Amino acid sequence: MQIYNTLTRKKEEFIPRNPPEVTMYVCGPTVYDLFHIGNARSFIMADIIRRYLEFKGYKVKYAMNLTDIDDKIIRKSNQEKTDAKNVAEKYIAAFFEDTGKLNIKKADIYPKATEHIQDIIAMIKELEQNGFAYNVDGNVFYDVSKFTGYGKLSGKKIDELEAGARIEINEEKRNPLDFSLWKKAKEGEPFWDSPWGKGRPGWHIECSAMSTKHLGETLDIHAGGSDLIFPHHENEIAQSEAAHKGNKFVNYWIHFGFLNIQNEKMSKSLGNFFTAREVLSKYSAETVRLFFAQTHYAGPLNFSEELLQAAQKGLEKILNLAEKADEEIKSGKKGIVPELDIEKFRVEFEAAMDDDFNTPQATAVIFDFVREANRAAAQQAGEVDAQYYKNVREFLEKTAQNVLGIISSSAGQNKDEGPSLEGDLIELLIKLRLEARQQKNFALSDKIRDELKNLGILLQDQKDKTTYKKNKEA
């Protein structure tokens, strides 16, 4: 397995420190608002990487932090006239709700900054003792000039950064590049007691303290958005390696490309964003995941309705085969087992994913498989043994479902959910549509079909009946 390592700027063979265990840390949200669909790309692609490592037999210890104290949270608490803790708890709950809807597996650990204050203080003290931190009237800063490797992740040079980078102006700093480890409490702000007085941690030190607390001084994989390379991840390296006397902080750095709107990075500061919740009101999680998987995780991706709709149409082909397989397996039909070299597709899928998690090629393999599986079955004119569909479903489950997450575990089960008000209403509309067609009122018939589609209900006209399936969350 090859992974492109941001630190070395090349693909490297993946060799975990203690196989089969793999430690993986992903930068999570600052919980002051709903996360946008650009953030969702990082969370989903990290989830796919984690799932594939598990597919390969690794035991992944996966941590994603929750930044629950920060300037943005404090500003939001002032706007809402409530405690910062209440803001954080509100949006942590929203985060779990939305990641659940996106079919993102739960992390093993969700460390919160406010629950690791003592660990953070201990790391800052280590940095002080090792000569990398200095205190100015209760504000503690990291002295970038003392860390000889500063800039090795981003490729930035200190002298160029000092000359032209947008750095927070602060006369207390020895150097404009120095960054906050501990911030002295301002009037009305949350604070904790520390050796330097009342205050709160800086953002960068939170991740260093929490990741090494739970995963050890050297991590196998650290992942996050490309916008975090500098300064956040650069500062994490400087802190962690200085505190741990030069021990390498991370072996493989993985960074996710931006999600753009009209070739401009989607961000809350620019106001050109959609929340994940808004997108999920129109498209299923599986559609969103396929949309992301069809572009390599490191590359930029333009967000558009047209591309999402194309992903939705592609997904229908996969889901139709999965549902057909489920139906045929239940039937227990005896017949011919068509020839289909499933092992060839499995090898191709793994080869794609082993090459720096090449999900576009992996999804192409799945589409090829769907086409070939349908073609092989069609040649038998309905006399296909249920075992054939068991084999087909097993491949889809291991790849499309378990790794990419583009088939839900309940695919094809809506027909067995039993009576419900929603189901009764859909059946009533199908009946009204049939009557409209019989009366040659095709305008009404098409309107019912299109309105149901907008609600995530896809009608499938067959020879003697019309069935439906839910293709996205309403």
Describe the secondary-structure layout.
Blueprint: E1 2-5, E2 10-13, E3 21-26, H1 37-55, E4 59-64, H2 71-80, H3 84-101, H4 117-129, E5 133-136, E6 139-142, H5 158-164, E7 179-184, E8 199-201, H6 203-215, E9 219-225, H7 229-243, E10 250-256, E11 259-261, E12 264-265, H8 276-280, H9 285-293, E13 301-302, H10 305-331, H11 342-354, H12 359-378, H13 386-401, H14 421-438, H15 442-454, E14 457-461, E15 466-470
Helix pairs in contact: 2-3, 4-6, 4-7, 6-7, 9-10, 10-12, 10-13, 11-12, 14-15
Q: What is the spatial order of strands in the main beta sheet?
A: 4-3-9-10
> How many independent structural domains?
3
| Alpha carbon gap, first and last residue | 39 Å
Number of contiguous helices = 15
Low-confidence region ranges: 412-419
Q: How large is the share of residues in beta strands?
A: 5-15%
CATH class call of the largest domain:
Alpha Beta
CATH superfamily of the largest domain: HUPs
Going by CATH, the architecture of the largest domain would be 3-Layer(aba) Sandwich
Sheet with the most strands, sense and barrel status: 4 strands, parallel
CATH fold naming of the largest domain: Rossmann fold
Can you write the helix and strand succession as a string?
EEEHEHHHEEHEEHEHEEEHHEHHHHHHEE
Tell me the helix content: 40-55%
Number of strands: 15
Q: Structural class, judged by helices and strands? A: alpha/beta
Polypeptide structure, described:
- By secondary structure, the protein is α/β, with parallel strands linked by helices.
- It folds into three domains: 264 residues, HUPs (Rossmann fold, 3-Layer(aba) Sandwich); 97 residues, Up-down Bundle (Four Helix Bundle (Hemerythrin (Met), subunit A)), CATH 1.20.120; 56 residues, no CATH class.
- The chain contains 15 helices and 15 strands.
- It has a four-stranded parallel beta sheet with strand order 4-3-9-10, sandwiched between helices.
- Strand 11 and strand 12 form a beta hairpin.
- Helix 6 packs across helix 7, helix 10 packs across helix 12 and helix 11 runs antiparallel to helix 12.
- The longest helix is centred in the C-terminal third of the chain and has 27 residues.
- The two termini are 39 Å apart.
- About 2% of the residues have low confidence.
